[in-house]
Amino acid sequence: MDKSWMKKSRLSRDFMQGIKEFLEFASHNVSNDGTISCPCMRCVNSYMLTLEVVHDHLVSYGISPGYNCWYLHGEIMSATTSSRTSQSHEEIRPEYGDIRDMLRDVFPMHTQNIDEYAEESNLPEPSDQGPSMQRPQEDPNEEAQKFYDLLKDAEKPLYEGCKNFSKLSAIVHLYHLKCLNGWSNHSFTMLLQILRDMLPSDANLSKASYDAKKIIKDLGLGYEKIHACPNDCMLFWKEHANDEVCHCGASRWATNENDLQHNMSTSSKKRKKKAAKVLRWLGLAADGFNPYGNMSTSYSIWPVILVPYNLPPWMCMKRSSFILSLLIPGPSSPSNDIDVYMQPLVEELKELWDVGVQTYDISSKENFQMHAALMWTINDFLAYGDLSGWNTKGALACPSCNYETHSR
């Protein structure tokens, strides 16, 4: 079937006619209650709706650009597509997995047409409407371009004829072994060098640990380590980054337990406003836990997690959607001094609200300025006292009742 209308403007006649032909085709495969899965940009085949509602959604939001084979609506996948899919799964041994599945988890905002981009990197065909009817297409921003570069590395074999590893998957698996076994950077570099000598001369393998780390960092696994005062007074950060002694007199190197790990997002780089505000909502969850279980009951490490609430409920609460922004090590709880450790996150949240961060919309091929606001915090009652500063002990422990507390 002719599906060129899917890449044209929603205001064009071809697009409206295409919707009509699609619904006519899908009407032969409706469910018992007369509904079909909605392939619009918002539903993405996640909801079963009536034909009339699907028509309205397609007109309002457009059709998902990655849905090229309408297999959920009765279309049979072509032999070439099915054979290519089966072949790709056969070539990858199950213990190594599919690196593109990992990219889907790391970059969920870019993976709507990941399979289409893997086959061809060109932009959608231009509409036959006049210039005033077309939406401008822009080059991907820095973060989106990282995703496309990683996608190319995921498609490039480690060497000619290699079926189990791509350039990206080889580095990921080797770096995973480095972390599991505690190899030093020097030993990992030595391993990479001897592997390059063993493999064919055209092998796409990093030369040193530094090169591998740059690739891993693009996967969103990088972090910034910030030293903290042993007495929880301040962070050796920004204007105090080069200080050796805290203002309380404690040495910066007195202990390494208080090193804060800050997973920096792209908003750490200042950007100018380029488009209208597009607001996103965030929730913040924080609490201490003991990573060693019964081995040590006195150790408490604090993760600070952001939850994006613009996703559907069944997606925003998945672990893959959580944003680990801070990791505050033990051995004890930061207690009321947690505000010292929260400074990097608070600064980024302010920037997300005031300045925003440039984001790439894969569906419209446009960059837009995304802003975010923190809605609330999620924690138990004891952690609530640390995050809010409210004294959760004593006569006025309940923040809601306050002086109206009936029980002392």
Average per-residue pLDDT, rounded, comes to 76
User: Count the helices. How many?
Assistant: 13
Query: Residue share in helices?
Result: 25-40%
User: What global shape is seen?
Assistant: globular
> What string, H for helix and E for strand, traces the elements in order?
HEEHHHHHHHHEEEEHEHHEEH
Q: Which band does the percent of strand residues land in? A: 5-15%
Strand order in the largest sheet = 3-4-7-6-5-9-8
**Total domain units:** 3
Number of strands: 9
**Computed CA radius of gyration, to the nearest angstrom:** 26 Å
Alpha-carbon distance between the two ends: 74 Å
Structural class determined from secondary elements? alpha+beta
Unreliable spans are 79-95, 118-136, 264-276
Query: Largest sheet at a glance?
Result: 7 strands, mixed
Please tell me about this protein's structure:
The protein is α+β, with helices and mostly antiparallel strands and 408 residues long. Helices cover 33% and strands 13% of the residues. It has 13 helices and nine strands. The protein has a seven-stranded mixed β-sheet with strand order 3-4-7-6-5-9-8. Strand 8 and strand 9 (366-378) form a beta hairpin. Helix 1 packs antiparallel against helix 2 (51-61) and helix 7 (167-181) crosses helix 9. The N and C termini lie far apart (74 Å).
What does this entry show, briefly?
With 408 residues, the protein is an alpha+beta fold. Helix content is 33%, strand content 13%.
